[in-house]
Each structure stands twice: as C-alpha cells, then as structure tokens.
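Structure ticket #2291
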Amino acid sequence: MKNFMKGLVGIILIVIAIGSIFYWEVYGRESLLFKDIVVLTKDVNKNEVITKDMVQIQKREESTLIDKVILDPNKIIGKAANNYIPKGVQLVEKYFENPNLVLDEDEYIFKIPLEWIKAFPDSLRRGDEIYFYEVSKGTENYNSTEGEIAINNKKALEKDPITNATVAYVKDSANREVITLSDEERYNGSSKINEIEIITDLETVNLLRDSVNNDKVFIIMYQ
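Resolution: structure written out below.
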C-alpha cells in the first residue's frame, strides 16, 4: 500500500509539473511577459489620417518594446502620419501630428522676423490658426500687450486679415518651445514668446514680404 501511495503521489506531482509547464507556456508567459500595443493594419503614407479601422492591438514581448510605445489607440486616431509608417511596426506619438501640422510638398516652416510684427498674444501655442492684420508701421513699439492691441488698433482689426497660417512653433529667447505648464489652458506659459514659426508656402511668404516692403507690419491674432 505504501509503494502504491508513493507511486500515486509521484504521478500526481508529474501531472502538476506538466500542467504548470503547459499553463506557463500557454497563459502565464503571455500575461506576465507580453504587453498589448497598438500597431497599424496597413502601410500609411505621410499626411494620411489614422482611422479606427487602421489600428489593432497586438501582444508583444515586453522586453522588445521601444520607449513610450503607444498602448492606447485613441492617442493616434484622428492624427496624421508625419512620414511613411510600415504596417505592424511599434509606434510612438512623435510619428504623428495633428493633420494641420503635417507639411505638404509645397509647404515650409517659416520664422516670422520680429520686425514684421507689431503685436501678438502671449498665449499663442503650437497648432493655433493665426490671422495677419495689416497696419502701418508707425512709431509704436512692437510686441504691445493684448490690451493695447484692442485699444489702439481697433480699426485695423475690423478689416479682414490679409492671410492666415498655422503656428508650427512658438519659442523663447533660448530657442526653447513655449508650452502651457498648468491644467488651466494657456494661463501659465513656460516662458515668454520671442519668435513665431509658421507652416506656409512661398506665395504667402511673398505676400507678407510685399506688405512689409510697403511700410506695413502685422498684428497677429487667433480665435
């Protein structure tokens, strides 16, 4: 009877060991060592906007994942690819932009010379759609406050803007991007804006330059 019990215990231990190995290989390894990540279901070209049917969740071994890999598909749905992205590769947020921030073939990043600007809001941020109001250069100081804009340039702002553009970057005097630091939108900037870069084309640049050559400067506003 003793030998029988020993044999039975041995068989049970073997079954448990085999079962544990099977569970680890089928379930345990995947749950502990793998992570759900977002990948594209097709190759995506530059400027193509990501839709829900273009993403899926795949399990990848955690040790192979790149830094800041995207885990939530909602972070990229509605965004545009800023370069060609192959199907199935690991994704990070820097591969995508808001659609209006991805450059077309005939678009460029243009830094607006400070002497072209009479005033602009300190609350400007990357991605804003800005409007250029043409005013005479005059003798006023540049970079007036928003209050002075409203008081001294009311007539100018009642006219239609001569053009508009999307802000690519706003930077401070140390060439760092100015960003919002608080949860309250735009109320707490990281520093003071010193330069504005826009996404534009040569036609718009030439339009602005011609206006400046005619002794005009711009009040920049956004909605």
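Closing remark: The first helix runs from residue 2 to 33.
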